């Protein structure tokens, strides 16, 4: 369901891998009985038109059902824990000109990428609280 990378791609305004995330949330939030029924009815193909017409914008994410929100929230927390430093530490480093300039160009670029990723993840946390 998730693809080769095993990750979802989030942007500032919407989920960029919305089909994968929608299907994953749908399946993971089903009871065992619902899943069996869904699978028996070839539900995978029946929902393709419905899935194409819905986008997982930030507004749509904030309206997800409670179990899906909790699943996303917990997943984001686990992802944030995998980073070495929190958002505030990254921001402090970006704002500290002396410390920032001591970093190599590659380290500076990595810092900007991590900081952006963490900001998007924190935004998602707020949307699904």
Automatic annotation (TrEMBL):
Query: Span of the secretion signal?
Result: none
Q: State the Gene Ontology BP annotations.
A: methylation
Q: Where in the cell is it found?
A: Nucleus
List, alphabetically, the Gene3D superfamilies matched.
Rubisco LSMT, substrate-binding domain
Q: What is its main location?
A: nucleus
**One Pfam family this chain carries?**
Rubis-subs-bind
Recorded GO CC terms = nucleus
Q: Which InterPro entries match?
A: Rubisco_LSMT_subst-bd, Rubisco_LSMT_subst-bd_sf
All residue ranges annotated as the Rubisco LSMT substrate-binding domain in the record: 4-121
Q: Which GO terms describe its molecular function?
A: methyltransferase activity
Q: Which UniProt keywords apply?
A: Methyltransferase, Nucleus, S-adenosyl-L-methionine, Transferase
Task: Write out the biased-composition intervals (Acidic residues).
Answer: 43-53
Ranges for region Disordered: 39-58
What protein name is recorded for this chain?
N-lysine methyltransferase SETD6
């Amino acid at each position: 369901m998730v693809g080769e990378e095993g990750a979802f791609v989030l942007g500032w305004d919407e989920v960029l891998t919305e089909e994968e995330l929608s299907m994953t949330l749908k399946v993971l939030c089903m009871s065992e009985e619902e899943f069996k029924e869904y699978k028996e009815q070839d539900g995978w193909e029946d929902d393709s038109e419905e899935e194409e017409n819905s986008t997982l914008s930030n507004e749509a994410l904030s309206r997800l059902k409670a179990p899906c929100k909790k699943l996303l929230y917990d997943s984001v927390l686990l992802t944030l824990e995998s980073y070495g430093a929190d958002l505030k530490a990254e921001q402090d480093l970006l704002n500290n000109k002396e410390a920032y300039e001591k970093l190599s160009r590659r380290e500076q670029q990595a810092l900007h990428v991590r900081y952006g990723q963490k900001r998007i993840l924190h935004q998602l946390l707020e949307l699904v609280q």
